[in-house]
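pasting Signal recognition particle receptor subunit beta for the record, 252 residues
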Amino acid sequence: MEQLAKEGVKQMAKEGMEQMAREGIEVEVKPVGMDHTFVAVICAIIVVLITIAFFLLRALKDKADTFLMVGLSDAGKTHIFGKLANRNLEPVTYTSFQENVLDVDIKGKHMKVVDFPGAERLRKHLIEKWLKKERSSLRGIAFVVDSSSFSKRSRDVAEFLYDVALESGKKVPILVACNKQDHGLAKSSQVIRSSLEKEIGMINKTRAAALTTTDGSSFRHTLTDTGGNFAWEDLPRSVEFVECCAVDGASV
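structre below
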């Protein structure tokens, strides 16, 4: 660092001398040593700037303090949210039409859990607010699936999950919570994972084809552009599948 500063000062001095010589100005040059105090100050300033940049980046990362819960209506999001807020809560089933927010402390850090309504008419608001405007605040997304009715709603689940993954950027991790595992017709997390992988692959191809313009060019606004079958590993983020059940005596 000090050597670079020395070379820079020498170069500026040389250019200044050449300019004065061209203008006919005589200057008596006496050899002097580099001012080490000046070099030390320059180095200190650079170190301070690097340190400030480091803490700014760290501060931006620390702003990601929100866990967002999404999913189709009746998937059990609000019930899971209620269990997180009060583990003694009696099992209830209801549909919410407004955000529920819970402040929690995790390992000494203040976090926020947001339960967003699953109503389709609110989907645009979800994308504009949380997946775009407030994306930098997201620490993770929990996508809740009703495992008991998955066979009937797999396409709807895939379409919604596709939009969530597409609009939330490339870095926010997604946890797919396969809820209602206590039901006899519930599909396992592995079955849901494989089924959604196929469904999202078909959605990817359909949307890619629809985006092709009349002149043959294509504007790709799709999850992946691998040209082959979709796989979860193609995504530049972590997508995990877990099984859960929001009833007394079961894990959430």
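The chain is about 45% helix and 15% strand.
Residues 36-62 form the longest helix (27 residues).
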